[in-house]
Amino acid sequence: MKALIVDDDFYSRNMIHEILRQVAQCDIAVNGEEAIEAFGRGLAHGEPYNLICLDLLMPEMDGQQALREIRALEKEHDVAPQDESKVIVTTMLADEKETHDAFFLGGATSYLVKPIDEEKLLNEIKSLGLL
C-alpha cells in the first residue's frame, strides 16, 4: 500500500507515520499544495496513492481545497471510482459542517478526530479494504 500523510503539525504527521509505516510506503506533505504535487506525480508515474490521511486546517491550502483538487486530478486521469484513493480526513475539529463538506463536497472516504489512535486508524484502513 502507498500512503500520503498530509498535515502541517509535526507531531500529528509523525504519529500517523509511525502507525502507517508498518503497513505502507509513506510520503509526507505539510500542506495542501505539496499534497497535490505529490498526488499528481504519483498518478503521472502510474503509482497512485491507495490511502491519503488529510488534515483539514492547514496553511497555504486547506484540506478541503486539496481534496477537491485531488478528486479533479483523478477525473482528469480517468481513474475509475472504485480505484480512487481512499481519503481519511484527520482533524482536531469535530465540526459537523467540516465533516459534511469533506464527505459530500470533497469526496472523503472517512473521518477520524485527532489525536489519532493506532487501533482506530488501522481498523479504519481495514474497513476500507486496504489491509
From TrEMBL:
The keyword Phosphoprotein applies. It comes from the Bacteria. Signal peptide: none annotated. Keywords: Phosphoprotein. The modification 4-aspartylphosphate is found at D55. Residues 2-129 form the Response regulatory domain. Pfam families: Response_reg (PF00072). InterPro entries: CheY-like_superfamily, Sig_transdc_resp-reg_receiver, ST_Response_Regulator. The keyword Phosphoprotein applies. This is Two-component system response regulator. It comes from Pseudodesulfovibrio nedwellii.
